[in-house]
Amino acid sequence: MRHARSFTAIVASSVMLAGCGRDMQSMLAPKGIQAEQIAGLAWLLFGFGIFVLAIVIAATWLAIGGSARSRRILAQESTVFALGIAFPVVTLSLLLGYGVWLTRALLDTGRDQNAVSIEVVGEQWWWRVTYLAPGGTPVASANEIRIPVATPIAFKLRAADVIHSFWVPSLGGKVDMIPGRTTHLRLTAERPGTYRGQCAEYCGGAHALMALEVVAMPASEHAAWLQRAAMPARAPQSDIEQRGQDLFLAAGCGACHTVRGTAAAGTLGPDLTQMGARRSVGVDTMPLTRDNVVRFITDGQLVKPGNLMPEFRFLQPSELDALAAYLLSLKATDPDG
Amino acid sequence: MADTSTVSSYPSTLPRPGGEQAALEAVWASPRSWRIVTDVNNTVIGGFYVGTAMLFFLLAGTLALLIRLQLAVPSNTFLSQETYNQIFTMHGTVMMFLFAVPVVEAMGILLLPQMLGARDQPFPRLGAFAFWAYLVGGLVFFSTLFFDLAPSGGWFMYPPLTSSRFSPNIGADFWLLGIGFIEISAIAGAIEIIVGVLRTRAPGMTLDRMPMFAWTMLIFAGMIVFAFPAIILATILLELERAFGWPFFIAAKGGDALLWQHLFWFFGHPDVYIIFLPAAGMVSMIIPTMAGTPLVGYRLVVVALIATGFFSFGLWVHHMFTTGIPALSLSFFSAASMAVSLPSGIQVFAWIATIASGRLRWTTPSLFILGFLFIFTLGGLTGVMVAMVPFDWQVHDTYFVVAHFHYVLVGGMVFPLFAAFHYWAPAFSRRALSERLGKWTFWLMFGGFNIAFFPMHLTGLMGMPRRVYTYPAVMEWGVLNMVSTMGAFLFAAGIALFLIDLARNLRPDASNTAGNIWNGGTLEWVHNRVYGARSIPIVTSADPLWEQPHLARDVDAGRYYLPGSITGRRETLVTSPIEAAPQYLLRLPGPGWTPFLAAIFTAAFFMLLTVKAVTPALISGVLAVAMLVVWMWDSDPKPLEPVDIGGGIKLTTYASGSLSHSWWAMIVLLLVTGSLYLAYVFSYLYLWTVSPQFWPKPETLAPVASAVLSAFLLVSGSAILVVAGRVLPRRSRSGHAFELLTGLAAAMLLAALIAEVSAQSQAGQRPATDIHGALVFTAAFLQGQMALPILVMAGFVIGRSLGGRLGLERRVIFDNFSLLYHYTIGQSLLGLLLVHGFPRLAG
Amino acid sequence: MSAAFEGIRPLGDLLRLFIAPAIWFAHLGAVYAAEALICAGPPRSHGDTMSWIVFLFTAAALMCLVILTVRTLRPGDRVPPPSGQTSAWFRRITLLLAVLSGSGVIWTALPTAFLPVCSSAP
Lengths: 337, 843, 122
Fold this sequence. Notes:
B: Cytochrome C Oxidase, Chain A; Four Helix Bundle (Hemerythrin (Met), subunit A); metal ion binding (chain B)
């Protein structure tokens, strides 16, 4: 029985973990309707597992050192039949039925005409995000997805190169992104907050660093944010920012990156129109600070080995300053909006 | 059979003639010193085989420790990204392909003949070939790690990541050619095991008295026959794509990345049970001995084994729950995953019942078995969890799954294996392993395992994905990972202690072993030497040593069948598959260079091909075939007069048709090739459902007339070979009608292939253009893959006929050739029907 | 002694063991293939078609299992008298496998009652 006790203890400690604040990527701390339904199933399954394990341990214990009577009962073929066939048939039928019922419930959840549609394309090793507003122009972004709270979101998932898998544990299950196919995922965040996600299908090289953040915000704020995000990039407001923009265009950054409203219209890499408004740089490998932006420009292969961006080591410190200032300035006018 | 339960008179009388045993020993003597590589005996090869598999276990385990070191703390820089990716790929690949499957196969090669009362495996040289191919291929494959040439696409090798576009290095080619080749060696072993279990059991050992380990090995080998061809086809397709651009997995040209996943997991899921079942068989052997009572529910356990064998083929999609396949399809496989847990439940409670019906002795094997019961049950339960579709959407590809399958595989297979090492060591070694060290080994391994892997359930639930080389500190997975790492080193300490135990106590010996120290009831516990028991007993129960008093003594005294060598060669008895009635005396080959050299050259062929050294590769290939021909030349020895094996039973020394053990091997081989072809037919139809727009309009297809021509050539070829069989000369040579007809039949097959390829080319089909062209030429490729050996074999048959080694009586070589030939004709016709008929039907 | 070994039976008994689980596998393959084909075709309402297909396949599979069970229980006159206990042993195993496979077939069919056709992950 010692094993059963330690098992319960560890499961109990996981409950405490789930209760703590550092649960931005835990399926035990659900923040969305889908994730909550699955977490409910998870606890049911854990209970079932502990129950069956306890039976097996108890039976083994009795078989070794139990009374003559209990051992005689355990040694019968009919007992093998009862515990090994009849009992599992009944319990597993119930579990299977519940699992199928829950699958049905999840299929129906968030199947809403008014769902917000967002396309996410997995690329080695970042996420291309496009907000598909009905009637409006698509708004491109990368690695950070802002969604309205309590609104069903319909994700369209595609892959540009190899297979990836889109997964935000706090909000729900994962779905693979497969070249040549479009897959779908519906999520609904119930509370505002920032939820971390990560590519779950090994996609080579820097798979470990292919993370993303979903920021759930009140619906009205989200609408306002999306409106601003659809606008061209904020123009440089100071000399240093202007110098940065000139450098950005002169160094050829625009061959791969887009900054809407400027000549930079490359599509190979992430859209940077809203870069200053993001929370991190290098696909969630580092917080968004001046130093980290510079680091990514000069030592990108150290930060995220194998990424397609060349290291711009020839830039002088002052030039890097200007470039970073420009990039950090790229955000809609009201930073908290 | 009642009359055999009380043996009033023994088949052979005492005293045995002087010198009989010495002659037997001489016939079976192993070559000395380095010439041991020419030996083919199952005890020697089996020992090497187990040792090599354990070497790969240690190597892959070392890689696991490197992985754990890297993950011990967040943002660690101990290993670089690329190195880590190579290491985790190699860890999985080596553990699955070079350790887990080979080691259970090796245990089968080592133990089965002794357990079944045979002198050796039915095809000793095939077993030796399989072993050497595996050793050389495996070592070369592993060493790629030291040259930064190892694959880094994961052990599951999903395209398009592993396509030439995203993995241009030859690491992936090493995986595809190396692993594909090692699978072939696994299939060779499986054929050996199936024929061995069904045809070389001791007289009276009916299927319901067969040791449970033999049952599991039979199901194991049967599963390999149907599961491995799927991955062999997958590796062929991916290598064709990488080398020649045939777009099987490229969506833009009509291919589909998911095809690989279907084929891979159609192999991969059964593979888990392929690994587990033999381990379960070991448990079913060890528990009865340790509890001192027969297995409770023998029947139920056999039911469980057969059910597992089938049910495990219906689970493959449960590795694809997150691929966006319709939920209803997923639920079919969720249900199948539930179904497969029933047989495991039966076995667990049958083992507990056996423990309850006897008295469990607290030995090292017992401890490992109890550890197995706990760990495996927990792994099975998390298996039920991941079989629930919504739950799997969350935990799929997280550390929860890593924990789950290590519980299943390490718990389900490594713990029983260590129990088996401790249990069976005295049957092969002068000394048993130390009980004291063994118990320490167990507690270190058991504790270490749970400390390493239990926390991974939690890291997974907390969101840590698999196959990440690092993770940021903010995720707070650091503590649990550190605990896992410490557990892993504790586990490794247990393994190290086991190695010390081996060094101190394992003294393999062919004739002088520690013997039946556990009081086991099955035949491997009579006094066995390289040739097995002195005489082959009559078996009247499932635990003969318990039920038949004095059996061990009488067997050793030579009172049963075949107490010496009758024909002056290595021999074993062939018995009927169900009742184990003696049918004929099989003369077995002795040591020789050909299996060893053939294996070396075959391995060289594949490895040189990988590094694109085409000419040396072809030379090696030709040499390998030459070795095979030399090897086969003195097979099928000519019939002798019937011999007396004792007890008044006179047996022939030659059998043809379905009586022959080699007929059975050929049938199993045809099942393998048939499965491979069915996997191709599945791929064809599957890809059509994915991209039907790539199928040409009927009017642009190759003309029907060309298909009719090919079919005509094929059918005539078959008819010609039937006629050849009729004119097979009796003895004296008159004319060469037989040789001419055989050659003509082979030519017809080749002509049909050429006709088909040229018709498709003229119709404008090209393999690299789109998926339809690729599939059309794949059919031709698979045809060619059959035609090539048929040409070689036809030449061999003709040669033997000319050399006077083939005739109306001595005809097994021709019979087997005919089986393969007619099968190939059938496969070709099916291929023509599919390639020419289906587009017209669908268009 | 040699008389004991004369009752050599063909492989039929062994292969017979595999019939029930093979039916289970055929059923699974058939319903899976049916759904794959239906969903590969043009999109329309398939609910009824699929339900009928699964119902028919399931009925057929269970029918086969019942026939197998009946024939195993009553081997009839064609089969020569079983040699000893081995035959009874084979019959018991065949029956148990039929029971297990039957549960499996029903489990496979069960989700059709709950889930829509061709609808993929949420």
